[in-house]
Amino acid sequence: MKGIILSRKIKNKLNATWMTIWTVFIFFIPLLLTAGLILKSSILLKDHSFFNLVTSSIWKPLSGEFGFLPFIISSLLVTVLALLIAGPVCLLSAIHLTQYANRYILQIMQPVIDILAGLPSVIYGVWGIIIIVPFISEKIAPLFGIQTSGYTIISGALVLSVMIIPFILNILLDIFNAIPKELQEASLSLGASQWYTIKFVLIKKAFPGVVSAMGLGLSRAFGETIAVLMVVGNVASIPKGIFQPGYPLPALIANNYGEMLSIPLYDSALMLAALFLLILVIAFNLISRLLIIRYEKRFA
Amino acid sequence: METLSVSKKVIPITNYQIPKKIQIENLNLKIGKKHILKDISVSVPKNKITVILGPSGCGKTTLLKSMNRLTDMYPDMEVTGKICIDDEDILHSGTDVTNIRKRMGLLSQRPYPLPMSIYKNIAYGLKISGRRKKRFLEKRIRHYLIQASLWDEVKDRLREPASSLSIGQQQRLCLARGLAVDPDIILADEPTSALDPISSQEIEKKFLELKNGYTIVMVTHVLRQAARIADYVIFMYLGEVIEQGPAYEFFNNPKTEITRAYLRGSIN
Fold first, then answer.
1. CA angle A62, A253, A44 (to 5 degrees)
2. Smallest Cβ distance to A184: which of B73, B180, B187?
3. Is residue A67 a contact partner of residue A210, using CB atoms and an 8 Å limit?
4. B174 vs A contacts (CB less than 8 Å)
5. ipTM of this predicted complex?
6. A54-298 has which CATH code?
7. H-type alpha helices, B112-255
8. What's the pLDDT tens digit per position in A89-121?
């Protein structure tokens, strides 16, 4: 009897220890990643000032000039545009699916959303080249009197927005479904119409969740590489409009990692690009966190 | 057999000639093949507390919610029959459903304050009715908070989120919020089930005060609570109304075997 209890105690202890170890391991992954990136990129930062690297737009790796501004701006433009397109679409369809639509429509839509979410990004890229790029160059750009190949910021943003829609939509569906029916009943019983209830109660209640869904979508869009790279043009100069080509940070890394060891400091510069990516994603996360905390202090 | 004392004046059933506020006739409610409410015909007397009693899952809440057509929220519910309020059939009337709902305040099992400040929770219904003047709103909000015995506790923190209140306070806020749309009926779905005994007592006391001006319909499965405050009882079992009548009659002279079994505590 004593033996059994002892062995149980040991098993318990052992299992608990393993779980702790893996949790700690997961906690350290981002730290390890960041440390590696900082270590590698610090070589470039030794003889280039950080400020210069961020504000310069001259990119000539062969002569040792690394200006990251075009890439940072391209990245921001493409992702923010993508979110501006995808965000409202997701919000409206999430409200429709959870509040107005028949149960069966959601049952049909759920697998559609899941398939969209699971498609490999290269498919989105090819689709972008076949459909979006000519559409922009032949139909949309001429409307504004602009001539372009179609490989532009807006093409990247469009492809990206389609890619993040299932991702954001899934989170939003969960959020709206988690709001208790009774809260709606309370509002309706006070004489509010359904639309009034959605506008002043549901969206308000869902607001923190909506912000974090958008934040997650933004982070995801930010890191998306291959599909964007295929349609965005990849020209290393600051885009002067959405019908100009751009060159986002992930595309820069993916296009050049092959030759990074043959040019001095190039590897360090690409690591710095990766570090920028990481910092911006963390910044997005922090901002949406802060928004939620501020909101919850006021209402929740 | 356990006896429940009812400290009310005996109302002989024959003299029970109080005007009816709500009259339900042959109400049937189905979800697909499931028959939730079976041929319900009940009447609710005006300015009294009517308690809907019954074991869980017998359709009490559904019956209550069909009275202000919250059943509309669930498109797969199929409702037939007649629900008359002051002789107007609300199930088939052409009037806007929001107007019907405004005549009834609703208290649910747990308080669900709207995600806004205490002040705005009560202003919400008033604003829907088009009252927007600040002076008017402030006066009314004070009035309803006093009526729900909450004013003294919250008068200095009206701008704080409603969720910062205790559960008992939240339930009284929900009561004030419901009263603010100036209803003549209060629908309450086990309003004390999430509350501590003292907060429950306050709600019960409030109901006894309010019944002079309002018709109150309350769902509960707490027999003692029903015995304490009911004037009239509707007893349901498996989607059917088994017995209805004055509370005194119901508790002291139950007519069916099911009721007797329920009062003994052998159904639940």
1. 50
2. B73
3. no
4. 186
5. 0.84
6. 1.10.3720.10
7. 118-128, 134-147, 151-154, 167-179, 197-210, 223-229, 247-252
8. 999 999 999 988 888 888 899 999 999 999 999
